[in-house]
Amino acid sequence: MPDHDTPVAVITGASSGIGAATARALVAHGYRVVLLGRRVERLQQLADELGPSAVAIAADVTDRDALVAAADHVRRDLGRVDVLVNNAGVMLLGPFGTEQRQEARRMVEVNLLGAMTATEVFLPQLHDGGGDLVNISSVAGRTARAGNAAYAATKWGMNGWSEALRQELQPDIRVTVIEPGAVATELTDHITDPDVKQNTEQFYAQLAITADDVADVIAFAVTRPRRLTLNEILLRPTAQPG
Ligand code: NDP
Domains plus CATH for the chain? Predict the structure, then answer.
């Protein structure tokens, strides 16, 4: 039977990094968490660690049918959604051009369209009882630079979309945009340009904050009194210049 008192958070891209850390932080704050992602074994490991407060569901955010099935599962078994964290993302940095065209498209499909699809699919359940929409953007949503054009486009897009949604959904749903700087996760593992990958990894090794640092901020934001919304939170490692 669904437990109607305990808040439920749905987190996309919960199999590693900021998503996994957010799941741990929200469980510590008394939430049940729904872990979405493609790597089922990783999701299941995390669900096992978190115990009965967590459920793992395989869902690629570029596959609307999978998200609809996940939303049906959540409605049936948990009965509510209080928080949706649009966290799934890829950062395939590199020079803009024909060689990178598939990576550019993938970033748009996962980072921006994936967040839009997850939101559209879960929105009726968020509307049921108010709720929080947390969109994981980036410093790259405010600072464009050579080499991050397509990634920055996805995050600038997310910021504009989020601000419009904030106005559209208030006061029932609070919209919070989180804009982290460098965070030590698996994000840089997937960069295919060897020079860009090496430079990015060196930069991260010098100063990156932890996924737990970001998760603490997300947990803080969603646990504020309903009268207050933290609309946009920019957080960088103290030593990060831009
Ligand atoms: P990770 O690579 O550790 O996590 C990314 C997550 O996204 C994984 O859980 C992955 O799960 C999921 N994901 C990727 N593609 C898909 C997909 N098609 N469908 C569903 N899930 C998907 O990196 P981070 O934790 O760092 O990244 C999380 C978010 O934080 C991203 O949006 C990123 O842009 C943002 N961010 C990260 C920063 C950093 O420096 N690390 C800085 C600023 C923002 P799976 O592979 O199992 O599907």
Answer: 8-231 (3.40.50.720)
